[in-house]
Amino acid sequence: MPYIHFTEEQKLQANQVDLAEFLRFKGETLIRSGPEFRLSSNHSVTIRGNEWYDHAAEKGGGPVTFLKKFYGMNYAEAVLALLDKDVSQLCPQVTTPREKVKKPFELPPANENNRRVFAYLLKHRHLDREVLTTFVRQGLVYEDQKYHNAVFVGMDKDGTPRHAHKRSTNSQGKPFRMTVEGSDFRYAFHWPGASGHLLVFEAPIDMLSLISLYHDSDWKQHSYAALCGTSSQPLLGMLERYPNIKNVLLCLDNDEAGQLATRRLAKVVREKSLTVGARVPVHKDWNEDLCAKFQQEQEVQYEQKLS
Fold first, then answer.
1. DSSP string, 52-83
2. What is the pTM for the complete model shown?
3. Is the pLDDT at 190 greater than 90, yes or no?
4. SS3 label, residue 200
5. In 151-190, which positions are buried (b, 16+ CB within 10 angstroms) versus exposed (e)?
């Protein structure tokens, strides 16, 4: 493509296109995640106004850089696509940048009981009751008052909540999940143990699922952390706060995004001169493995009744 000169006004206009509306215009499917959207094709990428952020790569930018990274366009092609006549008519401009003021962190008000959370996590996700009860009694899992979501809490060493991740308890339709605004990702949902072993997961339910699958009387001696995505911040936070950790086992999802993140996080751990390994679930994630085991046990019990 020959060199194209763009005025400063054209460059500004291209980078002020509402990225969510542009992607819908291009046929992309977006999933609402609180005040942001996630790409259906890549859940690690969030969109808000004219900005995007890839939580796996820990990089972001505006519409032009998005088209260069994800659509394989060069700079001129990206600007021309965003200045297209149809785009200008159908996609609004984000005229003011999103405020960067960080909202103070607050836990969602708790419900008077945890009935819906227990019903969902025990009956639909098949977590071990003893394991779930342990986390509930520590104030690390509870049911919120307004929407009856499951809330997974991350605390600092003093027991002060610093992070919270919400997940809907509705087993029908698309799941709602969102990190509470103002959360400090260094303290995402975790369990600190006295041993030198740390197991790392993408989601809180995956973390509780593996403990449910393989737990014994010693499970509390190990450390566990849920990234609530694939960011390295929760992992680095654990390594900074708990110098007893010498061995890290990455237990991320068995898909392309999970394995890409595993390789990236393994490099982070090696740079700390620590031992790192990986363990992959048989199915897509550890909860699917747990549910498959439950189904197998149910089938065995049914056959035993018939025999």
1. EEETTTTEEE-HHHHHHHHS---HHHHHHHHT
2. 0.75
3. yes
4. strand
5. bbbbbeeeeebbbbbbbbbeeeeeebbbbbeebbbbbbbb
